[in-house]
Amino acid sequence: MKIATWNVNSIKARLPNVVAWLKKAAPDVALLQELKTVEDGFPFLELEELGYNCAVAGQKSYNGVAVLSKHPIEIETKVLPGNDSDEQARYLEAFTGGIRVASIYLPNGNPTPGEKFDYKLAWMARLIEHARGLMALDEAVILGGDYNVCPTDADVFDPAGWADDALCRPESRARFRELLWLGYTEAFRTLHPDAARAWSFWDYQRGAWQQDNGVRIDHLLLSPMAADRLVACEIDKGPRGQQKASDHTPVWCELED
DNA sequence: ATGCCCGGAACGTCCGGA
Length: 257
Description:
alpha+beta; Deoxyribonuclease I, Chain A; 6-stranded mixed β-sheet; 6 helices; 14 strands; 26% strand; DNA-binding
């Protein structure tokens, strides 16, 4: 079973790229982020034609997450618990193909310090508490998405230059580690402990892609029941080199049946 | 020191992204 995550940076602008990649990579489950549309604007027909069921938590202009699956999808929640006044579409949790998955678009948090950074840290605290509850269920769970966190300096092309960025701040990294301490396995680094310059995002600016100046911020976190089945995890750089590319590229993992 | 590059909303240019 192949599960992928990809921040597409607008599902409408990226539809040709997404369709081409789904055909080629053929994941069983795809967790998408930054749809930048309400549910009514989501291209259900085009994706269903490829054999995918689609669950969407949409928002006008910003955010928006989806779960695509070749299996039936049962939506668990379209909001991250813990703050009823939070209207940003950044979390969708569902059952599909015998596992529980969440598509996560964690807040960026820049600039630091400030309200946006406070929102990021509060959002991460809510995610930790929810993830703690999921861990107690003893299920196969994959929390995948754009975490907007570089877990260590090995996940940034220029650690010194990014030291004060919200993606690298110690407060962000500490909360990411709290997720791991709950018992979640970050699939890519676990299978590739020494991988260098393994990025999942390259800025559109400053020729970042051409110079391979990136960061690794898209992650797949697996509960023990899922991690026990983990046999592969890779970053697919192909889509980032295409015309009209998203600034993120897909990350996928394979669970044995 | 600031903007560069994108998409969305809107039709001016700004906001948000990371």
